[in-house]
Write a structure and sequence with these properties.
The chain is mainly alpha-helical. Helix content is about 60%, strand content about 5%. Strands 1-3-2 form a three-stranded antiparallel beta sheet, covered by helices on one side. The N terminus is likely disordered.
Length: about 190
């Protein structure tokens, strides 16, 4: 059977249906095991965040810090921490931190557990953690398939801008939580 030609200019011929599943299988089987461990950790943390719980104040910083480290590490490895990519991240983070810091109230409350606060459960942390993970994963796959994207300013700014949005949300929410903590009655979360 001969090669398929495109008889309609301007329209892309469909990919061979057998190549798409093979490529997906290749991508999934060549993903390092530690990546699946990170995914499992994030899903587990996201599931915990869905229910009301008592949390030590210092642990409220854990997930925003992990997401920040994952984002910055990935940005540095793929594009370097400078120039337009870092500017896109910083602008997006700042643009998202403010509304995330102002949105919603009542997530933090007094706890009966000494040294802890009561945190209302939410699905959003799981969604945002998966967004960071899959942005990182898709960008890695894209760069494996098309390494020239590493030098594409638009691609770098788009990926880093997404990381900025997600990191800004985590930082804004953390700032809101800390502000709510300060409003709790004296001794409500004291040891």
């Amino acid at each position: 059977m001969g090669a398929r030609t495109n008889r309609h200019p301007g329209k892309v011929a469909p990919l061979n249906a057998l190549k798409e599943p093979a490529m997906l299988i290749q991508i999934l089987t060549h993903t390092p095991i530690y990546v699946w461990a990170i995914l499992a950790f994030l899903v587990q943390r996201g599931m915990i965040a869905m229910r009301d719980r008592d949390v030590e104040l210092r642990k409220l910083v854990m997930i925003p810090a992990v997401m920040l480290v994952l984002s910055l590490q990935d940005m540095n490895a793929k594009f370097g921490l400078g120039g337009p990519a870092l500017a896109a991240w910083a602008l997006a983070a700042a643009a998202m931190a403010l509304p995330a810091g102002l949105a919603g109230t009542g997530r933090i409350g007094a706890s009966n557990v000494p040294g802890s606060v009561r945190v209302r459960g939410s699905r959003l942390p799981l969604v945002m953690m998966m967004a960071v993970f899959f942005t990182k994963y898709v960008a890695s796959v894209a760069l494996s398939v098309a390494p020239q994207l590493r030098h594409d300013t638009l691609f770098a700014c788009a990926v880093c801008g997404l990381f900025g949005v997600f990191n800004g949300w985590f930082v804004g929410r953390l700032a809101r939580d800390l502000a709510s903590y300060r409003l709790l009655p004296a001794g409500a979360a004291a040891a």
